[in-house]
Design a protein that fits this description.
Largest sheet: 2 strands, parallel
Distance between the termini: 18 Å
Number of helices: 4
Order of helices and strands: HEHEHH
Strand content: 5-15%
Strand order of the largest sheet: 1-2
Oligomer: single chain
Radius of gyration: 14 Å
Length: 72
Amino acid sequence: ANKIDELELNAVLTTESDNFGIAKTIADSAKRNAMILSMNSMQSITKEDVDSGITYLSIMESNLETLEKALN
C-alpha cells in the first residue's frame, strides 16, 4: 500500500485466478484510490475457449489493454 502511494500507482494487478482478497486489502490500505485489474496468465484456458476463438494473441492484446489502463 505504501508503494502505491509512493509511486503514485493507479492499479493493483492480479492474475485471473486470484480471489482478489490480498489485492483488495492493499488497494483499500493505500491513500490513493487504486483500481484492481486482472491480467490473464493463460493458466485457465480451456479447449472450449480455444474452440470459441481465443488465441494467444487475443489474450496478450487484452493484457496490453489492462496494462495501458493501469499506467494511465
